[in-house]
Amino acid sequence: SHCSFVLEQLKFLPDDEKRRDHKARCLWFLDTLVKFSYLRMIKKKHPVGPECPQIISRKLRRNFTSLTYNHGGVQNLVSASMKAKITAYVIALALHIDNFQTDLTILQNDLKLQESRMMDIAKAMRLKVSKAKGLLGLENDQDHKLGTLSLPLPVQKAPRSQRKRRKI
């Protein structure tokens, strides 16, 4: 029960043992992040399963949850802002795995996000977003968006704010 991005990438593992191992580990961590993003409240010692090492579980809990007081005790909550942070980490890891260009639509479906939310996060990361054309293995019922990290990063457009009116 791995996410579709991971299943797709497993088909293209490199032949070199060191690079193959590195890519497999990155894919495992990406899959773990996606599973962690589905959670709302962390109560168990192993939130993503016993196969996940304790040091990774602790790091996920520390980086992607916030402490909240609920029903007389302190619990770890995966808030909306933390889900956005997880999404940004997943996109960054996917870019690393996929040579700085990745299919955002597949990641969006894996993370169960709305397209607008995914595009907001991708644009905040200064990715160049384009429509995928002529890629093999894409479902035709959905327009796929590609996110590309290219240097130099595009300059972020400053929001045009209205001047404050003086009170008379």
UniProtKB/TrEMBL annotation:
Source lineage: Eukaryota, Metazoa, Chordata, Craniata, Vertebrata
Annotated GO CC locations: DNA-directed RNA polymerase complex; nucleolus
Any Gene Ontology biological process: DNA-templated transcription
Protein name (record): RPA49 polymerase
Gene name of the record: Polr1e
Keywords: DNA-directed RNA polymerase, Nucleus, Transcription
Stored InterPro entries: RNA_pol-assoc_fac_A49-like (IPR009668)
Similarity comment: Belongs to the eukaryotic RPA49/POLR1E RNA polymerase subunit family.
Superkingdom of origin: Eukaryota
Organism: Uria aalge (Common mure)
Compartment(s) of residence: Nucleus, Nucleolus
Predominant location category: nucleus
PANTHER family: DNA-DIRECTED RNA POLYMERASE I SUBUNIT RPA49
Molecular function terms, GO-annotated: DNA binding
Presence of keyword Transcription: yes
